[in-house]
Give the backbone structure.
Amino acid sequence: MSIINPTLTLTQLFDEAWLNKVDAIADLHRAFNGIQMDLAASVAYKPFHNQLRKTEFARFMEAVVAQAIRVFSNQLSAELPSKLKQFNQVLLQDGSSFAIHPDLAEIFPNRFKGKSPAAVECHMTMSLQDEQPAKLSISADTASERQFLPAADTLTNSLLLADAGYVGIEYMSNVQRHQGYFLMRSSKLFNPTITRALNSKGKELKSYVGIKLKALQQRRGPKAQVLDLDVKWPKYQCRMVMFWHTEEKHYLWWITNLPREQFSAEDVNRLYRVRWQIELLFKEWKSYNNLKKFVTRQQHMVEGLIWASLLSLLIKRFIGRAAQQRLQRRLSLFKIAKSAQNWFEPIMNSLASKSLTQLTADLAWAFDFICQNCHRAQQSKTRQGNSFEAILEGLNA
């Protein structure tokens, strides 16, 4: 027996599981039978379950997601500041983990043993221009994060933003060798030698030259609010930007090879905050696309459902960004995702029934609804200049 129709299967995964209605495979099975509107076409639970537990299910869903990423890329690209237009791509890298059934601990061990013995981590590369995932890898939570970074030779004339867990001297050196750029939060374990130091006004600070980074941090007395450094290790050298955090009384520092002439220390500070967009994407994925623990012991079923939930996010974001382009104004992707139960389900039902006329009408309604109800709210952080739009405006200044 084979699943009746891949389109119906995908629709069901979108329409029910990813609208936060499904907690178990039995729920998904009932929803699958219900959407067909034909009792004679119903599938018994066991053959349905047996299809989803196969490795082919996970690989099929992975292939569909890869195709969706290709189709949606560059179709609705966001307008970036002039300083970022010089890059082929601006990529954000991060990972997020969640617990799964304890019986999968041998395949997907959890690094935090106190919570659950089994957990998966989703390693994401996100395109800032496309506002969508560019690549996803699924691994055990214990796997090293660095192995899932984009290959250095794919980053020519591109910029990668990543957290401290991804920093590695060899990787940074390879990115630079391939004429790529990186901006990462520096690891506290790094202790390079300072070869040049500038303050916020560009004044040379000769007394900092030749000392180790950790020695600088341990210095007593008044702290320079901004330090723009050149640092080196035995086989590599690059730039480091440090900001003194007055309340927490320690430096925040970033490591980069962005040229000082084009990107000031303040630009580096602003630009790294753009990385928060991938954190928001993970929040949207988990909160409104049902990325969570599934009640199943089947490895391939877990993987397939993760890919299906990502496919749901991709399609919702694409429809939302299409509405945004129509309005010629940035909308709230969070509100678009949160309100999906009002516009997404009719689209999926029309797709499943292959009704092009109804699908066209449902898409028109979705656009109208999103444009009217998903505007960005004016929050206090916006007035403080910390919103995404304010950061981009600052980079344009």
